[in-house]
Amino acid sequence: MAGSTKREGGGVAVSERRYPPSWRQRISTTLALIRANPTGRIALKIIFGVLGALVVTIGIALIPLPGPGWLLVIAGLGIWAVEFHWAKRLLAFTRRHVHGWTAWVKRQSLPVRLVIGSVGLVFVAAVALLSIKYSLGIDVIAQVLRYLATN
Description:
151 residues; 75% helix; two-stranded antiparallel ribbon; mainly alpha; 4% strand
């Protein structure tokens, strides 16, 4: 067990404090050194602000499509959270509610989980079909109905 030591009686006693991995410590130290300089602090805010905005924008553009839209929005929020306190609070709020939702779903019976999953699939399918219809001009449902009527 990490951060613990075995004792003779077979019990486990916590003997040392857990520290972040060395790569995280190096990044944290590097960011602290950059923030020590007023110009570096502003540069970091600009870099993380622009990078986070880019990732969030791509994520928002991908939300209607099947894929990692929400994941990218949350990743962009995580990038912003490195430099902005409001983003850190919003990310904590999001994590708390996502964990609460998943815990609630796990407590439900199998039929309820199947209904929740089915509603989610219908929603994703509807969004995908509408995205294809309005962005590419292809009416998939009309094409399928036409195919079924002629064959």
